[in-house]
Amino acid sequence: MQGSANLNIMMKAARKAARSLAKDFREVENLQVTAKGPGDFVSRADIAAEAILKEELLGARPNYGWLAEEADEIEGTDPTRRWIVDPLDGTTNYLHGMPHWAISIALEHKGEVVAGVVFDAAKDEMFYAEKGQGAWLNGSQRLRVSGRAKMSDAVYATGLPFGPRPYLPAALQDLARLLPQCSGVRRWGVASLDLAYVAAGRYEGYWERGVKVWDIAAGLILVREAGGFVEPVLQGASIFESGGIIAGNNVLFDAFRETIRERSAA
Q: What is the rounded CA–CA span in Å between residue 258 and residue 210?
C-alpha cells in the first residue's frame, strides 16, 4: 500500500529509532537501567529512542501535539492532531534480552486514531494502517483478522498485572472463565504487538485492563482496518480513559466479549 505523507513519516521515524534500540539490545547487559517500580523499568535506550521519535515526528509536523510514555505532554498549535507514541513497548522483555518488543506510533485527529505503526524491529515486521486504507505488513501483505469460528480453536492474548497494580483479581477471574473455552492464552508483555497479531490473524483476540493510551493507540486502528472489533472492557466507557480493552475477530467477538465482561465492575 502506498501510504500518505504522514504514514511515511511515521515509518521512517520508527526505523530510525529502531536502529538505536537494536544497537543497545545487542549490548543489553551493559544498559544503564533505573527502576521505576516492580517490573516497570526505564532504560537509557528507551529515552534515546523517544528523543529520536520526537525529533523526527515533531520536526516534520511541528504544529502537532505529543503524548508519550517518558515525557511531558505537548499541546500543539494544531489542537486537532497529536502523535501518541510508545518508543519501547515491552521494556522488560528488552532488558531481559528477549527479542519481543516494539515501537508504537499513532496519529490522532479530532479524538480518533487515523493512522498507526507498530514496528517489531527484532523480527523486521512493520505493521501499519490508515483509516479506510486497510492494515498491512511490510508493504505488501494485507492483514485480515482470523476467520476461526469456534472458541475451542481460538488463541487469545492478555496482559497480567504486576507489582501493586489493582487488576490481578479481575485478570485471574477472566482467565478462569476463558481458559476452559479456548485453545490457549498467551502473555508476551507487549500490548501493541498483541493487537498487531490480532490484526494479522495470529490471535483471535486480546484483552487487558490498566493499559495506557500509548500502548494501544496504534494497535486499535490495525485491528479495525483488518476487519476486527475493538471495545472497552466496561460497556459504555472510553477505552483511553478507562484503560480497558477487548479486541477480536468479527466471528467470535461477541462470545469473547461477554466472557470477559461477565464479572465486570473492575
A: 19
The amino acid at residue 70 is: E
The answer to whether 67 and 111 have CB atoms below 8 angstroms apart is no
Rounded (10°) angle between helices 44-60 and 5-25: 160
- For residue 38, pLDDT over 60 is answered with no
Q: Enter the CATH code of domain 151-261.
A: 3.40.190.80
Amino acid at 116: G
More confident residue, 247 or 243: 247
Report the 10 Å Cβ neighbour count for 62: 10
Closest to 57 (Cα-Cα) out of 44, 66, 45: 66
- Average pLDDT score over the chain: 92
Asked if residues 215 and 101 have their Cβ atoms less than 8 Å apart, the reply is: no
Q: Is 27 exposed, middle or buried (0-12, 13-18, 19+ CB in 10 A)?
A: exposed
5-142 has CATH 3.40.720.10 classification:
no
Percent of the chain exceeding pLDDT 70 equals 95
